[in-house]
Each structure stands twice: as C-alpha cells, then as structure tokens.
Amino acid sequence: MALRLARTSAEAHLYMELHPCESCGQTGFDPVGSVVEADGDLARRYTGDCLSCGAPREFTFRVPDEIPPAGDDVPRFGDDRPSELLDAGEWLWLADILASGTPPDPARLDARQRRQTRMDLLTAASALSEVLKFVPTGAEAVPTKTLWSSRGRAVHRAEPNRFRRIHLEATRDTCRGIAARFS
Question: Superkingdom, according to UniProt (predicted)?
Fold first, then answer.
C-alpha cells in the first residue's frame, strides 16, 4: 500500500493527534521524526512510545516534492491539493472544535488568552479552507466520496448542508473576521 502524503509537518502532527494508541486509546505521544526512504519515496517516519501505556507507536508519511512555505502567523496545513490524511468531515470537525470555545468579549481576556483565541479561530479558518479543497471546480458541495473516516461521515450525516461551498466560505470568513477582534 502506498504511503499517504503529509503535505506539511503540521498536517502529520494533527493526524497523529487524531489517531490514538491502538493499545490504550490515549493520544499522548512524543514522536521523534526522521527522514527515510519507504517504497521508493522520500518519507518522514515518526516513532515513540505512548505516554500512557508505553506501547511503541510509528507513523510514516510520504513527503511532498516541494514543501509549501509557512504562513506568517496563519496556520497552514498543506498546498492546494486536498489532504490524503484527513477527510473533509474531519477538517470540519476540527474547525468546529477550535471555534466552539470562542468567548464573546475579547475585553475580558488577558493578552495571552486573546492571542490563543485568535490562533484557534485562524486555525479553524485554515481547517475550513482544507474542507474547501475537496469541492471540485464548478461544484457546489463536497462530494460524499471524500468522506472516508467514520468521524467525517458522522459530521456529514448530522448536517450535510454545512458541506456546501457557500456555507464553508461564509463560515471561514466569519472565523477570520472574529479573529481580527482578538488582535
């Protein structure tokens, strides 16, 4: 089976966070990364032990021919291609988690809390941009075939209209607008 592409190290780390230890179900993992050749491709292997039960964990991802440049202070998970690691529903789930804790009044937060809230909202906007990469040119919505995980399919089943391009763009732009209030 061909290795899946991790377009950035941020995407690889997110994937590892979302895939818990098979032995105990915990996500604590302090991986050490190394560059290797796997199946004739340049790859990045992450190894380490589960912080909960000590079971060995390993993830190997193909690396892109060209690494996308890092964003200024906006999180970036990949280039213009849709993710091979997370499906459209998982990206939307992540955006929901990140944006759900947004306090209504920035004035009640200290500087550190405002920075964290701003980063969470910008990361949610980036996750929504990742969902949009699954919408084919000229299409109105994410095709259901791009939902291969149980989490992604569950998010879609709960609210399929949220996968429409117009809704995704509006939600992404709203996250960006609210993030600006926390600067």
Answer: Bacteria
Cβ neighbours of residue 131 closer than 8 Å, sequence gap 6 or more: 88, 91, 92, 95, 142, 163, 168
Amino acid of residue 34: S
Task: Output the CA torsion sign for 130, 171, 123, 100.
Answer: negative
pLDDT tens digits, 19-67? 999 999 998 889 999 999 988 889 999 999 999 999 999 999 999 988 7
Tell whether pTM > 0.85. Answer: yes
- Coil vs helix vs strand at 106: helix
The Cα–Cα gap between 168 and 141 comes to 9
User: Distance (Å, rounded) from C-alpha 113 to C-alpha 173?
Assistant: 21
Query: Are 57 and 111 members of one domain?
Result: no
Closest CA to 64 of 80, 47, 75: 80
Number of domains, the chain: 2
As a three-state string, the secondary structure of 51-83 is CCCCCEEEEEEECCCCCCCCCCCCCCCCCCCCC
DSSP SS3 for 9: helix
Domain around 146: 88-181
